[in-house]
Amino acid sequence: MATIFSRIVEGEIPSYKVAENSKFYAFLDINPLAKGHTLVIPKKEVDYIFDLDEKLYPARELLDLYALRWEHEIYYKELKLHLSGGDLLQSHTPVTAAQEVAALLMASSVIAEQRSEAARSGNLQPLSISFLKTLDKMSSLWVVFEASHGILDEENRQELVARIRELIVREAIPKRRKRSCPRKVRQPVSSWPRLTKNESHEGDFTVQIVNFP
User: Fold this and answer.
1) Are residues 82 and 100 part of one domain?
2) Most buried residue, 7, 40, 47, 180, by most Cβ within 10 Å?
3) Tens digit of each residue's pLDDT (9 = 90 or more) over 106-125
4) 38-53 pLDDT, tens per residue?
5) What are the strands of the beta sheet with 38-42, ordered from one edge?
6) Predicted TM-score of the model (pTM)
């Protein structure tokens, strides 16, 4: 008999899909432990995940899907909290709710375009440009454009856009600094010495998987 997960993959049981490829499927948990709690499962039904063929189901594909899931969660957070201002829509009918969602998607597309242009002008990665700071700068610019209608010509407007992008680039997210201490299992607060020496190992590894009864 097919498990509940196989039935979800086959579409027999409805789910909210977050990401999918030919071998894995990611969807929102029906009983989330936190907002955006997502499950990533293989499409092949096995008793243990270690029973999957490592060549057909490489860990890299699972990690890539997990990264894609993470980007989805960040986008939905930006959409709901920064653009909409909360988890709930303000509309009261299906028609106005659809219009509100469409407006949010259009606004997020405008912000995404400006982030990309700012990143290109500053020779940066788009993800290093803050969504919230871009939204803040562009919102101020839109107010200026509305107030200066009929005063500024197109050349001046384009110059303002370019300067706003320069401000956005100046506030780009810096590269993550190196850790002062290696990431370790938390130790109890005591007189134990602090772990300050980074440890690494190179070369081949042998991994033994033990199945417990």
Assistant:
1) no
2) 40
3) 999 999 999 999 999 889 98
4) 888 888 888 877 788 8
5) 17-20, 24-28, 38-42
6) 0.59
